[in-house]
Design a protein that fits this description.
With 264 residues, this protein is an alpha/beta fold. Helix content is 30%, strand content 14%. It contains seven helices and eight strands. Helix 5 links the parallel strand 4 and strand 5. The longest helix is centred in the N-terminal third of the chain and has 19 residues. The chain is globular, with a radius of gyration of 21 Å. The N and C termini lie far apart (57 Å). 37% of the residues are buried.
């Protein structure tokens, strides 16, 4: 039996200080180092857990109740009867169960908030409250409907809720598909004039909201920017460009990355 060779570090490993991406793994002979193999297996298990972990609606409702100015949350269900049904039949996650849809009445708010478990309840559980705590004070002028929590929900569920409420706009907070280094990413999907049957071209997305990605406070500033632009242009989606990262966009929002040339 041949003994394994020594660990050969990858010179690109230094870049891991800037990212959770699986780069610069190194090798032992022609194989991955044991530490990297174990890290991969752990990340894969965390991603699977994030998909199947049920959303703790009671805990989320309690967390939302602590946000000043926000009405008590309403818990509803999509047409997917359970997680297996949700994963096998995606369109069911885009519409409310009929009996639950009847609980919503037209209120014509400026903004409807829809919180859906999506593919990572972990993301929703961890990041929803910090995001809303940062976002709501940025737009105190808005009349916001009571947040709607939807289990087994997908992005399109926002269209159904927004249409029933006759909201001017809807913001969907949803757990994103887990990556191997990001099981807790929250996605924000904004739609102006929500209605049933809209496609993704009508939405603007702010992705990877989590402490290790786009921090909730920065995401809140970007969401407020997108909302402001939508109000000015009376639209959302591909016709509304998110220029919040441009130098002329949000004040104080840095556009520099580790690939940027040194500042002169």
């Amino acid at each position: 039996m041949t003994a394994p060779g020594p660990l050969t570090e990858d010179p690109w490993r230094i870049l891991r200080q800037f990212t959770d991406a699986r780069i610069g793994l190194g090798r032992v002979g022609t194989s991955l180092p044991t530490r990297e193999l174990l890290a991969f297996q752990q990340a894969h298990a965390q991603a699977r857990d994030a998909v199947h972990l049920p959303l703790d609606v009671d805990a989320l409702t309690a967390g939302l109740a602590g946000i000043a100015g926000l009405a008590p949350a309403i818990a509803l269900r999509s047409q997917a009867v359970d997680r297996n049904d949700y994963l096998r039949h995606p369109p069911k996650g885009g519409k409310l169960l009929a009996v639950d849809a009847d609980r919503l009445t037209p209120d014509r708010p400026d903004l409807a908030l829809v919180i859906a478990d999506g593919l990572s309840s972990l993301a929703v559980q961890r990041n929803t409250v910090p995001f809303l705590q940062a976002f709501l004070p940025l737009r105190p002028d808005l009349r916001i409907a009571a947040p709607v929590i939807v289990t087994q929900g997908r992005v399109a569920i926002g269209d159904h809720v927004g249409a029933l409420l006759q909201a001017r706009a809807v913001l969907v907070l949803i757990g994103e598909r887990p990556g191997l280094s990001s099981p807790d990413s929250l996605g924000l999907y904004f739609t102006w004039a929500p209605a049933l049957g809209l496609n993704d071209a009508r939405r603007n997305c702010i992705s990877n909201v989590r402490p290790a990605g786009l921090e909730p406070k920065r995401a809140a500033v970007r969401a407020a920017y997108v909302l402001g632009q939508a109000e000015a242009l009376n639209l959302s989606g591909v016709a509304l460009k998110d220029r919040s990262a441009d130098p002329s966009g949000i004040a104080g929002e840095s556009t520099r990355t580790f690939l940027s040339p040194p500042a002169s």
